[in-house]
Amino acid sequence: MKKVCEIAQLGNPVLRQQAVQVEAFDSNGIIRIVRNMLHALSESSGVGLAAPQISELVRIVIIASRPTKRYPLAPEMEPVVMMNPNFEVISELMKTDWEGCLSIPGIRALVPRYEKIKISYYNQQGIKQELVADSFIARIFQHEYDHLNGLVYLDRVVSNKDIVSETEFQKLMDQ
Ligand SMILES: [Zn+2]
């Protein structure tokens, strides 16, 4: 039996496909997917998740920043469920920082992302919302948004030399 919270790992073709728009925000299928995503997040130390990571090719991401073992400095916030999300770049300024991914265990890499963005999305009631995000939250969003388009963060890495093992990353952080 398939575990509810099984996370697709790099190499699984589902991570390389385009996710489709949510049509019926309140359908049982969508409610079930959101529930499974929240469950998968609560069982992991991730700070965000995209539906394709639980093998559901729909445009849903959840941002759930909180300090965890993987991200001790993450700001604390309630999980935000975003359907059919999009974003605009507010400042062309990009910042490079470390990322990891539940679908790519054991690896971290430096990734450039826009520092400040305006996110628009539909909530679970199908009401359009806007959110200006910067820094870590903007980074999580851009990472999860990429998953909806079949991209992973390694695709954004500038040099292979910016990819390190989780063990070496922890040593860097402890310095
Ligand atoms: Zn990811």
Topology:
Blueprint: H1 28-42, E1 48-50, E2 60-63, E3 80-101, E4 104-122, E5 128-134, H2 135-148, E6 163-165, H3 166-174
Antiparallel strand pairs: 1-2, 2-3, 3-4, 4-5, 4-6
Bound molecules: zinc ion.
Architecture overview:
- Helices cover 22% and strands 33% of the residues.
- The chain has 175 residues and is of the alpha+beta class.
- The chain has one domain: Alpha-Beta Complex (Peptide Deformylase), CATH 3.90.45.10.
- Strands 1, 2, 3, 4, 5 and 6 form a 6-stranded antiparallel β-sheet that branches.
- The protein starts with 27 loop residues before the first helix and ends with a helix.
- The relative contact order is 0.18.
- The mean pLDDT is 94.
- The structure holds zinc ion.
- Zinc ion binds next to helix 2.
Keywords summarizing the entry:
175 residues; alpha+beta; Peptide Deformylase; six-stranded antiparallel sheet; 33% strand
The tally of beta strands, per DSSP, is: 6
Which fold name fills CATH's third level, the topology? Answer: Peptide Deformylase
Described by strand count, sense and barrel closure, the largest sheet is: 6 strands, antiparallel
User: How far apart are the termini?
Assistant: 43 Å
Structural class of the secondary elements?
alpha+beta
DSSP summary: helix tally: 3
CATH H-level superfamily: Peptide deformylase
Q: Regarding CATH, which class?
A: Alpha Beta
Element string (H = helix, E = strand): HEEEEEHEH
Q: What is the domain tally?
A: 1
